[in-house]
Amino acid sequence: MPENEAARQEAVLRLNLLDTPAEERFDRIVRLTRRLFDVPISYVSLVDHDRQWFKSRIGIDTVSTTREISFCGHAILQDKPLIIPDARKDMRFAGNPLVIGEPFVRFYAGQPLRDPTGHKVGTLCIVDQKPRIFASHELELLHELTTLVERELELGDLIQAQGEAIKAKDALAESQSALAKTVEELQVSKQQAEEMLHSILPVELADELRTKGHVKPMRYEPVFVLFTDFAGFTKIAATMEAGELVEELNECFCHFDWVMGKHGVEKLKTIGDGYLAVAGLPRSTPDDAINILRAAMEMRDYMLKRKTEREAKGQPFWDIRIGLHVGPLIAGVVGVRKIAYDVWGDTVNTASRVESAGVPGRINVSADFHCWVSEQVISESRGLIDCKNKGEIEMFFINSLKA
Fold first, then answer.
1. Is 247 left (phi over 0), alpha (psi -120 to 50) or beta?
2. Nearest to 30 by CA among 68, 8, 9, 59
3. Using CA atoms, how far apart are residues 350 and 370, in angstroms rounded to an integer?
4. Is 150 exposed, middle or buried (0-12, 13-18, 19+ CB in 10 A)?
5. How far apart are CA 206 and CA 197, in angstroms?
6. Interval 322-345: pLDDT, tens
7. Helix, strand, coil tally for the chain in percent (to 5)
8. Integer Cα distance of 73 and 75 in angstroms
9. Which is more confident, 15 or 335?
10. What is the pTM of this model?
11. Alpha-carbon span 53 to 13, nearest angstrom
Protein backbone atom coordinates (compact mmCIF):
# COMPACT_ATOMS: atom_id res chain seq x y z
CA MET A 1 0.00 0.00 0.00
CA PRO A 2 1.27 3.52 -0.81
CA GLU A 3 1.87 5.82 2.16
CA ASN A 4 -0.88 8.15 0.88
CA GLU A 5 -3.40 5.34 0.32
CA ALA A 6 -6.38 7.11 1.95
CA ALA A 7 -5.94 10.24 -0.18
CA ARG A 8 -5.30 8.11 -3.25
CA GLN A 9 -8.55 6.22 -2.69
CA GLU A 10 -10.45 9.52 -2.47
CA ALA A 11 -8.92 10.55 -5.79
CA VAL A 12 -10.08 7.28 -7.41
CA LEU A 13 -13.65 7.86 -6.18
CA ARG A 14 -13.64 11.50 -7.34
CA LEU A 15 -13.16 10.30 -10.91
CA ASN A 16 -16.66 8.75 -10.84
CA LEU A 17 -15.49 6.03 -13.23
CA LEU A 18 -15.66 2.85 -11.12
CA ASP A 19 -18.26 0.34 -12.34
CA THR A 20 -19.32 2.56 -15.25
CA PRO A 21 -20.04 1.34 -18.81
CA ALA A 22 -17.36 1.25 -21.51
CA GLU A 23 -16.51 4.58 -23.14
CA GLU A 24 -15.14 5.02 -26.63
CA ARG A 25 -12.70 7.73 -25.49
CA PHE A 26 -10.82 5.14 -23.41
CA ASP A 27 -11.45 2.15 -25.71
CA ARG A 28 -9.88 4.05 -28.61
CA ILE A 29 -6.61 4.52 -26.70
CA VAL A 30 -6.54 0.88 -25.56
CA ARG A 31 -7.04 -0.34 -29.15
CA LEU A 32 -4.25 1.96 -30.34
CA THR A 33 -1.94 0.75 -27.55
CA ARG A 34 -2.52 -2.90 -28.41
CA ARG A 35 -1.87 -2.25 -32.10
CA LEU A 36 1.30 -0.19 -31.59
CA PHE A 37 2.92 -2.75 -29.27
CA ASP A 38 1.53 -5.85 -31.05
CA VAL A 39 0.37 -7.56 -27.85
CA PRO A 40 -2.71 -9.71 -27.16
CA ILE A 41 -3.79 -7.81 -24.03
CA SER A 42 -4.07 -4.11 -23.23
CA TYR A 43 -6.14 -2.31 -20.62
CA VAL A 44 -6.74 0.79 -18.50
CA SER A 45 -7.19 -0.17 -14.84
CA LEU A 46 -8.19 1.72 -11.73
CA VAL A 47 -6.74 0.40 -8.46
CA ASP A 48 -9.59 0.35 -5.94
CA HIS A 49 -9.37 -0.55 -2.25
CA ASP A 50 -9.33 -4.34 -2.74
CA ARG A 51 -9.46 -4.81 -6.51
CA GLN A 52 -8.16 -3.63 -9.84
CA TRP A 53 -11.08 -2.70 -12.10
CA PHE A 54 -10.72 -2.44 -15.87
CA LYS A 55 -12.29 0.70 -17.33
CA SER A 56 -11.27 -0.46 -20.80
CA ARG A 57 -9.79 -3.79 -21.83
CA ILE A 58 -8.88 -5.95 -24.82
CA GLY A 59 -7.81 -9.59 -24.60
CA ILE A 60 -9.23 -10.44 -21.16
CA ASP A 61 -12.78 -11.38 -20.22
CA THR A 62 -12.91 -10.49 -16.55
CA VAL A 63 -13.84 -6.95 -15.47
CA SER A 64 -11.65 -7.03 -12.35
CA THR A 65 -9.21 -9.02 -10.24
CA THR A 66 -8.28 -8.80 -6.59
CA ARG A 67 -5.69 -6.18 -5.80
CA GLU A 68 -3.67 -8.81 -3.95
CA ILE A 69 -2.73 -10.63 -7.18
CA SER A 70 -2.63 -7.58 -9.44
CA PHE A 71 0.52 -6.40 -11.20
CA CYS A 72 -0.95 -2.87 -11.21
CA GLY A 73 -0.94 -2.80 -7.40
CA HIS A 74 2.86 -2.92 -7.67
CA ALA A 75 3.01 -0.43 -10.57
CA ILE A 76 1.37 2.41 -8.59
CA LEU A 77 4.10 2.15 -5.94
CA GLN A 78 6.62 3.76 -8.29
CA ASP A 79 6.82 6.73 -10.62
CA LYS A 80 8.42 4.97 -13.56
CA PRO A 81 6.74 2.20 -15.57
CA LEU A 82 6.81 -1.28 -14.03
CA ILE A 83 8.45 -3.60 -16.57
CA ILE A 84 8.44 -7.39 -16.02
CA PRO A 85 10.33 -9.05 -18.93
CA ASP A 86 9.46 -12.60 -17.74
CA ALA A 87 7.06 -13.03 -14.82
CA ARG A 88 8.01 -16.69 -14.39
CA LYS A 89 11.56 -15.62 -13.46
CA ASP A 90 10.48 -12.79 -11.12
CA MET A 91 10.18 -13.97 -7.52
CA ARG A 92 7.37 -11.48 -6.90
CA PHE A 93 5.14 -13.00 -9.56
CA ALA A 94 6.32 -16.54 -10.40
CA GLY A 95 3.55 -18.12 -8.32
CA ASN A 96 0.89 -15.52 -9.17
CA PRO A 97 -2.45 -17.06 -10.32
CA LEU A 98 -2.38 -14.74 -13.36
CA VAL A 99 1.02 -16.24 -14.32
CA ILE A 100 0.40 -19.94 -13.69
CA GLY A 101 -3.20 -19.69 -14.93
CA GLU A 102 -5.29 -17.57 -17.31
CA PRO A 103 -4.28 -15.25 -18.88
CA PHE A 104 -0.75 -16.80 -18.42
CA VAL A 105 1.12 -13.50 -18.08
CA ARG A 106 4.80 -13.62 -19.05
CA PHE A 107 5.55 -9.99 -20.03
CA TYR A 108 4.00 -6.96 -18.34
CA ALA A 109 4.49 -3.21 -18.77
CA GLY A 110 2.36 -0.78 -16.75
CA GLN A 111 2.63 3.01 -16.63
CA PRO A 112 1.02 4.64 -13.55
CA LEU A 113 -1.89 7.00 -14.32
CA ARG A 114 -2.16 10.21 -12.33
CA ASP A 115 -5.32 12.19 -11.76
CA PRO A 116 -5.20 16.03 -11.83
CA THR A 117 -4.19 16.08 -8.16
CA GLY A 118 -1.14 13.93 -8.88
CA HIS A 119 -2.41 10.75 -7.21
CA LYS A 120 -1.63 7.46 -8.95
CA VAL A 121 -5.14 6.12 -9.52
CA GLY A 122 -4.39 3.27 -11.91
CA THR A 123 -2.35 2.16 -14.90
CA LEU A 124 -2.19 1.84 -18.66
CA CYS A 125 -0.88 -1.69 -19.26
CA ILE A 126 0.16 -4.13 -21.94
CA VAL A 127 0.56 -7.89 -21.41
CA ASP A 128 2.09 -10.63 -23.53
CA GLN A 129 2.09 -14.39 -23.06
CA LYS A 130 5.75 -14.67 -24.00
CA PRO A 131 8.87 -12.97 -22.57
CA ARG A 132 9.85 -9.64 -24.08
CA ILE A 133 12.50 -6.94 -23.81
CA PHE A 134 11.14 -3.39 -23.69
CA ALA A 135 13.22 -0.84 -25.62
CA SER A 136 13.71 2.81 -24.58
CA HIS A 137 11.64 4.12 -27.49
CA GLU A 138 8.80 1.82 -26.40
CA LEU A 139 8.96 3.35 -22.91
CA GLU A 140 8.58 6.80 -24.47
CA LEU A 141 5.65 5.64 -26.56
CA LEU A 142 3.92 4.11 -23.51
CA HIS A 143 4.42 7.40 -21.66
CA GLU A 144 2.86 9.39 -24.52
CA LEU A 145 -0.15 7.08 -24.63
CA THR A 146 -0.51 7.43 -20.86
CA THR A 147 -0.75 11.21 -21.21
CA LEU A 148 -3.73 10.66 -23.56
CA VAL A 149 -5.50 8.64 -20.87
CA GLU A 150 -4.64 11.22 -18.20
CA ARG A 151 -6.06 13.96 -20.42
CA GLU A 152 -9.36 12.08 -20.52
CA LEU A 153 -9.28 11.85 -16.72
CA GLU A 154 -9.03 15.63 -16.54
CA LEU A 155 -12.31 16.20 -18.37
CA GLY A 156 -15.38 17.48 -16.49
CA ASP A 157 -16.59 20.55 -14.73
CA LEU A 158 -15.68 19.17 -11.34
CA ILE A 159 -11.98 19.02 -12.19
CA GLN A 160 -11.99 22.58 -13.50
CA ALA A 161 -13.74 23.87 -10.36
CA GLN A 162 -11.08 22.26 -8.21
CA GLY A 163 -8.18 24.01 -9.96
CA GLU A 164 -7.53 26.70 -7.36
CA ALA A 165 -8.10 24.34 -4.46
CA ILE A 166 -5.51 21.98 -5.89
CA LYS A 167 -2.94 24.79 -6.20
CA ALA A 168 -3.50 25.78 -2.58
CA LYS A 169 -3.21 22.19 -1.47
CA ASP A 170 0.00 21.69 -3.44
CA ALA A 171 1.51 24.85 -1.93
CA LEU A 172 0.61 23.72 1.58
CA ALA A 173 2.00 20.22 0.97
CA GLU A 174 5.25 21.37 -0.61
CA SER A 175 7.07 21.49 2.70
CA GLN A 176 6.01 17.89 3.38
CA SER A 177 6.90 16.46 -0.02
CA ALA A 178 10.41 15.35 0.93
CA LEU A 179 9.10 13.49 3.97
CA ALA A 180 6.25 11.93 1.99
CA LYS A 181 8.67 10.73 -0.67
CA THR A 182 10.92 9.16 1.95
CA VAL A 183 7.99 7.38 3.59
CA GLU A 184 6.83 6.07 0.22
CA GLU A 185 10.31 4.74 -0.56
CA LEU A 186 10.39 3.02 2.84
CA GLN A 187 7.03 1.41 2.13
CA VAL A 188 8.34 0.08 -1.19
CA SER A 189 11.50 -1.22 0.49
CA LYS A 190 9.41 -2.90 3.19
CA GLN A 191 7.25 -4.62 0.60
CA GLN A 192 10.31 -5.79 -1.32
CA ALA A 193 11.83 -7.17 1.89
CA GLU A 194 8.63 -9.06 2.72
CA GLU A 195 8.46 -10.48 -0.79
CA MET A 196 12.07 -11.64 -0.50
CA LEU A 197 11.31 -13.29 2.87
CA HIS A 198 8.27 -15.05 1.37
CA SER A 199 10.49 -16.41 -1.42
CA ILE A 200 12.65 -18.11 1.25
CA LEU A 201 9.98 -19.28 3.69
CA PRO A 202 6.35 -20.39 3.47
CA VAL A 203 4.04 -17.45 4.18
CA GLU A 204 2.98 -18.66 7.64
CA LEU A 205 6.56 -19.14 8.78
CA ALA A 206 7.67 -15.81 7.27
CA ASP A 207 4.97 -14.08 9.32
CA GLU A 208 6.05 -15.95 12.45
CA LEU A 209 9.68 -14.95 11.91
CA ARG A 210 8.74 -11.31 11.32
CA THR A 211 6.52 -11.04 14.41
CA LYS A 212 8.41 -13.26 16.89
CA GLY A 213 11.99 -13.10 15.59
CA HIS A 214 12.27 -16.89 15.37
CA VAL A 215 10.47 -19.94 13.97
CA LYS A 216 9.71 -22.87 16.25
CA PRO A 217 10.97 -26.21 14.84
CA MET A 218 8.14 -28.68 14.23
CA ARG A 219 7.69 -32.36 13.46
CA TYR A 220 5.44 -33.03 10.46
CA GLU A 221 3.88 -36.26 9.17
CA PRO A 222 3.35 -37.23 6.46
CA VAL A 223 5.61 -35.09 4.27
CA PHE A 224 6.25 -35.94 0.61
CA VAL A 225 9.86 -35.34 -0.45
CA LEU A 226 11.19 -34.81 -3.99
CA PHE A 227 14.90 -35.08 -4.80
CA THR A 228 16.41 -34.57 -8.27
CA ASP A 229 19.86 -34.31 -9.77
CA PHE A 230 21.43 -34.42 -13.22
CA ALA A 231 23.12 -37.66 -14.29
CA GLY A 232 26.77 -37.15 -15.25
CA PHE A 233 26.60 -33.49 -14.25
CA THR A 234 30.23 -33.10 -13.19
CA LYS A 235 31.61 -34.64 -16.38
CA ILE A 236 29.36 -32.59 -18.68
CA ALA A 237 29.86 -29.38 -16.67
CA ALA A 238 33.61 -29.69 -17.17
CA THR A 239 33.07 -29.22 -20.93
CA MET A 240 30.99 -26.04 -20.55
CA GLU A 241 32.05 -22.41 -20.13
CA ALA A 242 31.24 -20.94 -16.71
CA GLY A 243 28.63 -18.56 -18.10
CA GLU A 244 26.98 -21.27 -20.18
CA LEU A 245 26.88 -23.64 -17.19
CA VAL A 246 25.25 -21.13 -14.84
CA GLU A 247 22.82 -19.95 -17.52
CA GLU A 248 21.67 -23.51 -18.27
CA LEU A 249 21.29 -24.36 -14.56
CA ASN A 250 19.36 -21.14 -13.98
CA GLU A 251 17.06 -21.84 -16.92
CA CYS A 252 16.25 -25.32 -15.58
CA PHE A 253 15.86 -24.27 -11.94
CA CYS A 254 13.70 -21.24 -12.83
CA HIS A 255 11.36 -23.59 -14.68
CA PHE A 256 11.38 -26.04 -11.76
CA ASP A 257 10.48 -23.20 -9.37
CA TRP A 258 7.57 -22.25 -11.62
CA VAL A 259 6.40 -25.88 -11.70
CA MET A 260 6.53 -26.08 -7.88
CA GLY A 261 4.40 -22.95 -7.57
CA LYS A 262 1.94 -24.26 -10.12
CA HIS A 263 1.35 -27.49 -8.18
CA GLY A 264 1.49 -26.08 -4.65
CA VAL A 265 4.82 -27.71 -3.77
CA GLU A 266 7.38 -25.95 -1.53
CA LYS A 267 10.88 -25.65 -3.02
CA LEU A 268 13.46 -25.80 -0.22
CA LYS A 269 16.87 -25.44 -1.83
CA THR A 270 19.34 -26.39 -4.51
CA ILE A 271 22.68 -28.02 -3.76
CA GLY A 272 24.92 -27.89 -6.82
CA ASP A 273 22.83 -29.69 -9.44
CA GLY A 274 20.49 -31.16 -6.80
CA TYR A 275 16.96 -29.86 -6.20
CA LEU A 276 14.91 -30.49 -3.04
CA ALA A 277 11.19 -29.79 -2.62
CA VAL A 278 8.39 -31.00 -0.33
CA ALA A 279 4.61 -31.17 -0.18
CA GLY A 280 2.80 -31.12 3.15
CA LEU A 281 4.72 -28.26 4.80
CA PRO A 282 3.79 -26.30 6.82
CA ARG A 283 0.31 -27.82 6.44
CA SER A 284 -0.90 -30.84 4.50
CA THR A 285 -3.75 -31.36 2.03
CA PRO A 286 -5.33 -34.59 0.72
CA ASP A 287 -3.76 -33.91 -2.70
CA ASP A 288 -0.13 -33.50 -1.57
CA ALA A 289 1.01 -36.87 -2.97
CA ILE A 290 -0.54 -36.44 -6.40
CA ASN A 291 0.50 -32.77 -6.58
CA ILE A 292 4.18 -33.51 -6.01
CA LEU A 293 3.96 -36.41 -8.48
CA ARG A 294 2.46 -34.11 -11.12
CA ALA A 295 5.30 -31.67 -10.49
CA ALA A 296 7.84 -34.51 -10.92
CA MET A 297 6.24 -35.55 -14.21
CA GLU A 298 6.32 -32.00 -15.52
CA MET A 299 10.02 -31.70 -14.57
CA ARG A 300 10.75 -35.01 -16.32
CA ASP A 301 8.89 -34.01 -19.50
CA TYR A 302 10.53 -30.57 -19.58
CA MET A 303 14.04 -32.06 -19.34
CA LEU A 304 13.29 -34.67 -22.04
CA LYS A 305 12.10 -31.90 -24.36
CA ARG A 306 15.13 -29.75 -23.53
CA LYS A 307 17.44 -32.71 -24.16
CA THR A 308 15.95 -33.21 -27.65
CA GLU A 309 16.31 -29.51 -28.49
CA ARG A 310 19.91 -29.20 -27.27
CA GLU A 311 20.97 -32.53 -28.80
CA ALA A 312 19.68 -31.35 -32.19
CA LYS A 313 21.88 -28.23 -31.88
CA GLY A 314 24.94 -30.21 -30.82
CA GLN A 315 24.84 -28.69 -27.34
CA PRO A 316 25.54 -30.56 -24.09
CA PHE A 317 22.48 -31.72 -22.17
CA TRP A 318 21.56 -33.31 -18.87
CA ASP A 319 19.34 -36.28 -18.00
CA ILE A 320 17.37 -35.84 -14.80
CA ARG A 321 16.95 -38.40 -12.04
CA ILE A 322 13.90 -37.98 -9.83
CA GLY A 323 13.16 -39.70 -6.52
CA LEU A 324 10.05 -39.49 -4.30
CA HIS A 325 9.52 -40.72 -0.73
CA VAL A 326 7.15 -39.98 2.16
CA GLY A 327 7.44 -40.01 5.92
CA PRO A 328 7.91 -37.86 9.04
CA LEU A 329 10.55 -35.16 9.31
CA ILE A 330 11.61 -32.12 11.31
CA ALA A 331 11.46 -28.66 9.70
CA GLY A 332 12.87 -25.39 10.97
CA VAL A 333 14.82 -22.23 10.25
CA VAL A 334 18.59 -22.02 10.80
CA GLY A 335 20.92 -19.06 10.59
CA VAL A 336 20.54 -15.39 11.50
CA ARG A 337 22.24 -13.23 8.86
CA LYS A 338 21.53 -15.71 6.05
CA ILE A 339 18.50 -17.71 7.10
CA ALA A 340 17.52 -21.01 5.52
CA TYR A 341 14.42 -23.17 5.86
CA ASP A 342 15.53 -26.80 6.01
CA VAL A 343 14.34 -30.30 6.87
CA TRP A 344 15.97 -33.19 8.71
CA GLY A 345 15.28 -36.82 9.41
CA ASP A 346 15.51 -40.32 7.99
CA THR A 347 12.79 -39.49 5.46
CA VAL A 348 15.10 -36.95 3.80
CA ASN A 349 18.01 -39.41 3.71
CA THR A 350 15.82 -42.16 2.27
CA ALA A 351 14.43 -39.83 -0.41
CA SER A 352 18.01 -39.04 -1.43
CA ARG A 353 18.83 -42.76 -1.68
CA VAL A 354 15.69 -43.41 -3.75
CA GLU A 355 16.72 -40.64 -6.16
CA SER A 356 20.30 -41.91 -6.53
CA ALA A 357 19.00 -45.46 -7.12
CA GLY A 358 16.84 -44.24 -10.00
CA VAL A 359 17.38 -44.18 -13.74
CA PRO A 360 17.88 -40.99 -15.80
CA GLY A 361 14.65 -39.76 -17.38
CA ARG A 362 12.42 -41.77 -15.04
CA ILE A 363 10.55 -41.18 -11.77
CA ASN A 364 11.68 -43.61 -9.07
CA VAL A 365 9.57 -43.86 -5.89
CA SER A 366 9.67 -45.83 -2.69
CA ALA A 367 6.97 -48.37 -1.89
CA ASP A 368 5.80 -46.04 0.90
CA PHE A 369 5.14 -43.28 -1.62
CA HIS A 370 3.67 -45.71 -4.15
CA CYS A 371 0.98 -46.72 -1.64
CA TRP A 372 -0.39 -43.17 -1.68
CA VAL A 373 -0.88 -43.03 -5.47
CA SER A 374 -1.01 -46.67 -6.61
CA GLU A 375 -4.65 -46.50 -7.72
CA GLN A 376 -4.03 -43.40 -9.82
CA VAL A 377 -0.86 -44.34 -11.72
CA ILE A 378 0.63 -46.76 -14.19
CA SER A 379 3.82 -48.09 -12.61
CA GLU A 380 6.45 -50.83 -12.72
CA SER A 381 7.66 -52.75 -9.70
CA ARG A 382 11.46 -52.83 -9.32
CA GLY A 383 11.47 -55.13 -6.32
CA LEU A 384 14.02 -54.62 -3.55
CA ILE A 385 16.94 -52.33 -4.38
CA ASP A 386 20.04 -52.26 -2.19
CA CYS A 387 20.87 -48.71 -1.04
CA LYS A 388 23.99 -47.42 0.69
CA ASN A 389 23.59 -47.34 4.49
CA LYS A 390 19.84 -48.13 4.13
CA GLY A 391 19.76 -51.77 3.12
CA GLU A 392 17.09 -52.98 0.70
CA ILE A 393 14.23 -50.64 -0.22
CA GLU A 394 11.27 -51.65 -2.34
CA MET A 395 10.90 -49.28 -5.29
CA PHE A 396 8.67 -48.56 -8.28
CA PHE A 397 8.98 -46.62 -11.53
CA ILE A 398 5.93 -44.40 -12.14
CA ASN A 399 5.29 -43.92 -15.86
CA SER A 400 2.06 -41.92 -16.06
CA LEU A 401 -1.28 -41.13 -14.49
CA LYS A 402 -4.24 -43.30 -15.35
CA ALA A 403 -6.68 -41.73 -17.80
1. alpha
2. 59
3. 14
4. middle
5. 6
6. 999 999 998 887 766 667 778 889
7. 45, 30, 25
8. 6
9. 15
10. 0.58
11. 12
